[in-house]
Structures are given as C-alpha cells and as structure tokens.
Specification:
- The protein has helices at about 10-15, 15-35, 40, 50-65, 70-75, 80, 90-105, 110-135.
- With about 140 residues, it is mainly α.
- It has one domain: Globins (Globin-like, Orthogonal Bundle), CATH 1.10.490.
- Helix 7 (about 90-105) packs antiparallel against helix 8 (about 110-135).
- The chain starts with 9 loop residues before the first helix and ends with a helix.
C-alpha cells in the first residue's frame, strides 16, 4: 500500500520523526544565517535563535502528524497571526521558502515527500504574506 502523506503520521514518519524534524529545522536556520537572499528575514528574528528553532520544531512535529508539542509549551498558534508584526511580501516569503528548500534537499527523505513538503509549506508561507499585506494596506 502506498504512503499517503498527510494521513495520520505518514508525513511525520517520512520526515524521520522528531530527530529528522530537528535536523531539518537546524539546517533551515543555518541557511537563514548564511544565505545573502535570507538577510532580510534573518533580521526579523532575534540574534539567539534557540527559542525560534524550538518553536518551528514543535510546530512542524504536530503539523506533520506527530505529537502536538507547540500548544502545551507556547500556547495556541495561528501561523499568520504569529507573524503579524512582520512585513512579509513575496521576497520575504520566497527567502523563507529558499532556506527551507535547501534544508529539505539535504534530508534523506523520499523525493516525492520532499516535493510534497515544499508544496505544503508554501501554503502557510503564502498565508503569512497575504495576512501581512492586508495589514499593511489597512484592510
């Protein structure tokens, strides 16, 4: 039977569970630190990324179908609202996705899962952009 990402914990398992997600998050923020294209979004984050890394890790664990770690530790989350204090336009969204794409490419994930994950991650990234633009435009 074929794996259907998004069902139960199939995505969580495909990402390597908690250890695999931790590796992904660490590489993602490593890229944010070094890519010139990511300088603007890196500047939106605190100097010390320890809590930021943990928040993304906790979020992704639950979002991918694993244990819901975020809410017990940090409270409820609505991704766009969590980023409402930031000005996010297409360049910022695309820089975030570039860091994630590079981090995902390095992981030992199945190629179809890598493509699935990037398609799915585009959705919250785009929602943050739309939410930010509406706030900026005063809607």
């Amino acid at each position: 039977m074929a794996v259907v990402y998004g069902d139960d914990d199939a995505s969580f398992q495909a990402a390597g569970g908690q250890a695999g997600i931790k590796r992904l998050v660490d590489r993602f923020y490593d890229y944010m630190d070094i890519l010139p294209e990511a300088a603007a979004i890196r500047a939106m984050h605190p100097g010390d990324l320890e809590v930021t890394r943990d928040k993304l890790y906790c979020f992704l664990c639950g979002w991918l179908g694993g244990e819901k770690l975020f809410a017990p530790k940090y409270g409820p989350i609505m991704i766009p609202r969590a980023h409402e204090h930031l000005d996010i336009a297409e360049p910022e969204r695309d820089a975030w996705l570039l860091c994630m794409e590079k981090a995902v490419a390095e992981q030992p994930y199945a190629e179809d899962f890598k493509a699935y994950l990037m398609r799915e991650l585009f959705v919250p990234a785009e929602r943050c952009r739309i939410f930010s633009q509406r706030r900026i435009e005063g809607e």
